[in-house]
Amino acid sequence: MAESGLAMWPSLLLLLLLPGPPPVAGLEDAAFPHLGESLQPLPRACPLRCSCPRVDTVDCDGLDLRVFPDNITRAAQHLSLQNNQLQELPYNELSRLSGLRTLNLHNNLISSEGLPDEAFESLTQLQHLCVAHNKVRVPPQQPAEQRWPAPRRLPRLRGHRHPQPLQQPAQLPAAQPAALTRAAPPAGSPANNLISKVPRGALSRQTQLRELYLQHNQLTDSGLDATTFSKLHSLEYLDLSHNQLTTVPAGLPRTLAILHLGRNRIRQVEAARLHGARGLRYLLLQHNQLGSSGLPAGALRPLRGLHTLHLYGNGLDRVPPALPRRLRALVLPHNHVAALGARDLVATPGLTELNLAYNRLASARVHHRAFRRLRALRSLDLAGNQLTRLPMGLPTGLRTLQLQRNQLRMLEPEPLAGLDQLRELSLAHNRLRVGDIGPGTWHELQALQMLDLSHNELSFVPPDLPEALEELHLEGNRIGHVGPEAFLSTPRLRALFLRANRLHMTSIAAEAFLGLPNLRVVDTAGNPEQVLIRLPPTTPRGPRAGGP
Predict the structure, then answer these.
(1) Which residue, 35, 38, 169, 315, is most buried by CB atoms nearer than 10 A?
(2) pLDDT band for position 50 (50/70/90)?
(3) Beta strands in 356-395, from DSSP E residues, in sequence order
(4) Global pTM?
(5) Between 317 and 187, where is the model more confident?
């Protein structure tokens, strides 16, 4: 999860729950701000076969160039040479382009020998540099303070080919301008180098760097030291995911807002390693090796402003103790949590999202007061556990409740009492029968719009469903008949899913859809026969019926 002028970070974190490293909002516009504009051609020289949509932009992407193009205007600020076959960068050509702010060399054949020591010396304005997917293996002989980081993201222009990773372990190359603010490879591809070490002092001049991406490398604890990041006084985003780290790096800067350490080999988090990063908002530790003692009490105490903690796919057997009080999102699926005690969550009363899906929670070991302090909670995910009944004491402010893939055998009104703001409830893939749903179960769910009862053992549509319901999932049950009064209590129904039941051609009563003016979808695919759907003549627009 990262979860800012930090208003941008929550939307950034959502993208963090997708595969691969999270994108950085607005980077394309920052790196190549003018490529999408439609302008009249300007009367100026442009390198052969290249495109120059503006006086400050030169696009030579995907032309199979073997030689650095000449005739590049001195006014160029944005130069893309990605997806070519360049083997070297001539110093005399680069030295003319002192105004460059963006240089994209992604996916070429440039070797360490093809990067002269002084290659970037004159590019004092350079802010965005990409050399991912080349053949740089060892740094040129340059003072350590001029070394530069492995980049991650620049926009894809045209002619993109699948990049090839380096074949040998590498260090960070040298001579990157101090003005650099973002170091990243192209959109949609990881860094995919084999960097195992950041030399001491390599980043000491990058005081304006705000985003640093070193994911998908071979960094170990010995490849970083306490000074590696200490001079990055503007750094806000650091991605070290998909490496071989066993501890949190030391010397993290105070400005850091997002730290991505997913898919490493971290076994324990020490508070001392986080003291410098007191401004951290999002800490991503998914797919590490955190066991029962991986997050001891107080380990995260320095992070008083932490917003989101991602712990997906570790070996934790309980909710970590003494979490930061201001934590808003705790993402803990696919661990070994088997119990929730009365005090396990009292330290985080401000939680709005709690995800405990696919753990080992059993109803007998979820205390009836486990959620009592979580008055701000809006989303609770308990899917994929071993619950046989609904938990008691659920926060009344819940909007979303996920309980699919448990072992629920009964629904009673009491656990759902007071949930008058609940909008989505998923009970799919359980063992519910209509007779197991107690009278009045749905009574207080006045705001419920989506109810998923798919893949249970229902033999007909449950009665007295919530009046606000708009989307009802009943697929994968044992329903063989839909009577005329099945939907009298749900006049706002828009979508009904009845696929893969036991319906035949005349199983749905002709009057079943009377009084449903908003109904747009009736899905009956996957039943023994194609189902005949009769709509009242007053329905403004008929629904779509699924085939057999």
Answers:
(1) 35
(2) very high
(3) 379-381
(4) 0.72
(5) 317
